[in-house]
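Hi D.,

Good news: the full-assembly prediction came through. Inputs first.
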Amino acid sequence: MSASPLRLCAQHECEKNPSLIKESGASPTLREEEKLSPASIATAANSNNHTLLINVGLQPWRALRRVRMIAVLALPLLVFVAACTGTNEDELVVFAAASLTDVLTELGEQYGAETRTSVIFSFGGSQLLSRQIVDGAPADLMISAGRQPIDLLEREQVVEAGPFDLVSNELVVVTRSGFSDPPGEVADLASESIKNLSIPDPNLAPAGAYARESLTSLGLWEALADKIVPTGDVRASLTNAERGNTDAAIVYRTDAVSGSDLQILDIIPPDSHSPIVYPVVVTTRTKRPEAARRFAEFLVGEAAGKIFARYGFTPLFNKQVGQ
Amino acid sequence: MTSELSLLGLSLQVAVVATVMNLVPALAVSWLLVKRRIPGGFVLDLLVSLPLALPPVAIGFFLLLLLGREGPFGRISQTLFGSDIVFTWFAAAIAAAIVSFPLMTRSIMVAMAGVDQRLELSARTLGAGPWRVFLTITVPLAYRGILAGLLLGFVRALSEFGATIVVAGNISGRTETLPLAVYSNILLGKDGQALKLIAITIALAVISLAVHNWLLSRGGHREVNG
Amino acid sequence: MTPNADGVSAKRPGDREPIARFHIIKEFSGFTLDCEAQFSSGVTAVFGRSGSGKTTLLNCLAGMVRPDDGYIEIMGRPVYSSGGNSSGRRATHLPPERRHIGYVFQDGMLFPHMSVAANIDYGHALVAPDRRTLRPDDVIELLELGPLVDRPVGGLSGGEAQRVALARALAASPELLLLDEPLSSLDAVMRGVIIRYLKKVWTELRIPMVLVSHSLSEVMALAEDTLVLSGGKKVAQGPPARVLGEPAVGAMADYPALENLVEAEIVRPTEGSRPGQILVGDATLEAPDVYGRIGERVTVSIRASDIIIATGKPSGLSARNVVPARLTELDVVSGRTLAHFDVGARLVVEIMDVSVREMGLRPGSDVYLIMKSNSVQVLNPERP
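Then the structure:
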């Protein structure tokens, strides 16, 4: 090899002492790890020395080592600062019961299109949601399934306005569409044509609790005891009826509407159970109480009422909201 | 429901921020435990591993106590910035960071331990202080393993659910990450949508894990022994 | 102090203050290192069997291990003290980076993610300009590393890696160089090569060295002073030739394997079937594998048991090498006798007691040393 050895020369020494540069024409190489001579690159390419080639390729990456180090350390700080620059305040945040997911999503889109105030939702179990609001969740409004979750909010004094009942729901009996002998009235549930009846477990789902309340007040609970098949949630009861696993099921009208291949039987008297209502409150967390109220007013208006009805809810057109 | 793209975007944002926040502490803790061998290291190791052993909802609960309006950090945030930490995407990031910290740290510890201590001692005898040794010897030689650890942490942060839902809630567009969206869809019986989201999650995980395994298989530098 | 020819004292380390002065106590489970000694020579060897504590001693000097008690002074500077009341010293423990002590590991321990040049430059860049005594250029030249400078560290052979490690340590301008078994992981030829370079560190750079070895041959070849450790305790200290005869050493030394590793100059290289010639001290010896240039210095290995002594000049022998020599010393140890001879260089010969008595050998005797040319092994890697 005719290539002459490269000389090393630490930066300060080269500057102080040019005579240290013994190579003709070669400028002082400072940190050898940053640069490789053309001769050695050629050698590397010829020798199939992969390590060296990778080293060559990584030179600029290594040279930026300091920059990378600083970037990596600074990033968390930047991120933290960015995070603390607050949330988007042009939006309304609405916490709502999971059962209202589809209808409220549509209503939210419509409202957003009409007024250019966007509404974002957090759907979940009502109890959990009110707990979160108490803990500081930034909800402008909450729409609950039932009164009880609102009680928590009232106790903790986070209610700015309300509660106002928005809509209500009803219990219905469903059978699959091909069922030959559907019950004509609620007492028929006890007859032999209905071998089993699926309801949501009263201990687990509010719908089940209402169903039990209704059947008990109608004096049918004992008679139906053997026939009742409890399920973990409303959806499962609905599915049982759809598939014919059970002859019939008791579900909310809103669930029945979303099912397929069903006969819906409106035979359960509404006064046999406590009202199934969905109250709305404006919380003290809101920074835009007027905007929140306007949305609530929209929800009790005509247009919203039609959409609610399509999903199986009973709109209440509550006048209190406007006051 | 929020679009898949915005879910993906938020999930990535939360996971990336969580991973970035973890990087420096993970490096520091690993160095302390592996190279410095501080007294009381046993306790530190225990603390670092704790989130692995606790149910994520429990971690979320503790975070709620610390970061909530009544908690120490929540109050600081209120005073300094006038806003809460809880129920924001940042809280989700913090939750994801805590939950993924042990995985990241353990991987990084293994990577650092794989750097022969005699290399570091050689550098010390050549005049390099502990900090310089860390930057010029330990990290460059362990960087593949460190990256792999980062990826592992990232993957875990992406899939974080239990702590997130407690401390950040499930607010669409702000804290609704992919795992939370999957959960909501399952609850509502929207199996098709749930599966779609799960598929996206799997795709992300597969890519990350593939890169992770590739990094580890490269093995880094062999020692020179002639 | 040793006066030179002018009668003026030659300056050597140890004249002003010893290179190292220490009392190191370190306890492990089942073993305690407790050694008090002083090093004043250019090249000191720490000799002992594996597990005798020699590497621990070295690591304490370097600052990698903290003793349990005692003190360490390097070039008069206290680098460690437990601060006990009796010592009158403050508790100190200088970390390695502040001790200015170089260290070469047995396996080189080159940084695999840097090139050879970057390795060498690593310590040099960290030295304060006013403390710099060596430039990387000089070190590279001294150790003949020019062609290797751009190479990545992964492709180096054992001997090359060891030289680079040496260069790296020297480039940091150390005041003292420590070496842990520098020759143990090398083959015979490489050992010979590295021995020459190690000698240069003292003869040309004047950097004192302390090296750890379990090979008496290496110790004899390199060191002026030897500290012998056994079970963590010092059992002997002195010039290797003298220490060779100590009973404590006799118990642990592998005499049959004892080699004379001496420096020689090529007089005439091997050509075809004609053996080459080398000059050892004043003696010209023939050897089969002499490769290199005339005048080149090489290391030669002659086993102590391969040399035969004759009181009169023999004739009609197949052995090619018959050289006159004067016996300088006799050591009887472990049932063996080691006879030291001066041929301009020191050669040690192993001989039976009976022969010594029958031949009437005593210090001052003039004899002839007989060696087959095969017994003279030139340790030079250059082979055409």
